[in-house]
């Protein structure tokens, strides 16, 4: 609140000259006439967040590098366990994983003897055998459509001109990767220094390369080992399989000592000299043109991804048994992995393993003893949020012992309450697409009229790269009694920590206007939590302490500002009336240990609603393009005309692209299909008590679906009306897109 009073004082005194205005126009107010301002956090998934707007909005020039029309937006959600070795260099294992029903799923990179990718496997050409001679045919599927993780280790040259060439090569390389590919950037030194954590944000990577102080240090084989191990085995052990390490050096690769074997990543060396190491799969000479060298590496990585294949087989072997994978004339040895105990009774399918069509199942069963049910009923009636013990079955799985508690704030008043679940043990189990872990939420959506607002918004934000969590609709049963449709959603803090090489914090913003402290989710020790809250407070102080004409650049250097502005634009386009506390910030320690904050939106279930508190705290915007923006960070749009202009550009871009009518209609249809596949019988409709206020029709599946379909059509019409109004306001504002 202190920031807010400071801004008002400055505005009144007339000291701040760079401001977009002091009041919203009432002609474009919210649904009930409340004046609007908008606050929203869009995370940074692939969109540059620094530099001219043309650099932000233009897709990088891919040249001959074409990206498939459909790719997974996020990480694969299966354990990454690399093991296995082959009798020649044409096959390289990347993963060996268990599959439900005693199956095995492997991923291999195939190359011809001269290094070209093998793009197709003839039917029947792949088998798995035991040492005793038993054998099974395997199914195969190409894996090239999945995003890659590219780690870059920079050994800076002592020559200033060569350092410039190196950085140009890296910038060219990252600009020519698929936009869906993830990049981690390190630098050699006394110890390996993380320059940029895992990101799709090309602008942030470029900014880091342009601003880091020079620090030449020779490449160390031990450092290559440590980076390779982290990239290949430890970082995101839940996918994707396509991973590469690129070493950028002004010297030749070491003749020995580089990591090889079943657990090692293939290395691409961008440097000088000749390569004699089997660990270096490709060696590109770093010449006088960094752009040419970087382009060659990007083209080689692009070609190699087409050699990625996923293989599924249903084998009868004990854990640790020696197996052989036969691909044509080549054979590879590997061990049978430990099985998925909780999925042991599921029918194994080789084709499902090859295509990664995991049998999640749409039903979730909570099983309580008589004593446990008595505790459940007591906690439910009295709104108690303490842990309870129970057992759970997720789809076709075996029962799993778990702890659970009721969660939420306003939803605690509902008959159908939301639940947090913590599965016993540390094993990470697949619970939804792009989600594996031991903790997740079961969201009742009791405050979400029609049960689609949150899922619809989450899908849109996921496609924009600002909501990385896995989620899906499920049907919940309590001791066999149908509880209706719930949303299964991955745990936020754990998921965000898993995405970082050097996690510093995960925190949730609370109600800024009344100075509610941030809720630090990670770390969980008192000193660490206090320090994290302090670092976030320093970021907020930047908003008022930085000269207005420097604010855009200063904030962009410390956080994913463009991602946040996209989130604000999203909330304005959909009239989200309550979102100031629906924002997660997560930071990692990057160059020189500085914290860089990224962002994730949260719980967007108040679309097309009035600004809460009657717009009491809403920041002023005479241009009418903000809606219910009231956070301390949002003050940057009032102080700086450059930050506001950047926001307007994002509003226009999203209105014509990611949130244009054809896109949101497609997403709404996908949500309807998934929701109605679960809300598919009268018993489930009868359990959805919140919808019964619409009449007796809501108590049948057909009637409930009709009511919800009407709501969805109404929201799409409102969204188009709002989009048209915002485009008119942009034109009046004078921004040319």
How would you explain this protein's 3D organization?
The chain is an alpha+beta fold and 737 residues long. It folds into five domains: 2-60 and 520-655, no CATH class; 85-144 and 308-355, Sandwich (Immunoglobulin-like), CATH 2.60.40; 149-304, Rossmann fold (3-Layer(aba) Sandwich); 363-494, no CATH class; 662-724, no CATH class. Strands 16-17-18-19-22-24-23 form a seven-stranded mixed β-barrel. Strands 9-8-7-10-11-12 form a six-stranded mixed sheet, with helices on both faces. Strands 1-15-14-4-5 form a five-stranded antiparallel sheet, with no helix packed on it. The protein is globular, with a radius of gyration of 27 Å. It starts with a helix and ends with a helix.
Biggest sheet, strands in spatial order? 16-17-18-19-22-24-23
Number of helices: 18
Low-pLDDT runs of 5+ residues are: 10-82
What shape does the CA trace take?
globular
Distance between the ends: 35 Å
Question: How many strands appear in the DSSP assignment?
Answer: 28
Portion in helices: 25-40%
Helix-strand makeup class: alpha+beta
What's the main sheet like? 7 strands, mixed, barrel
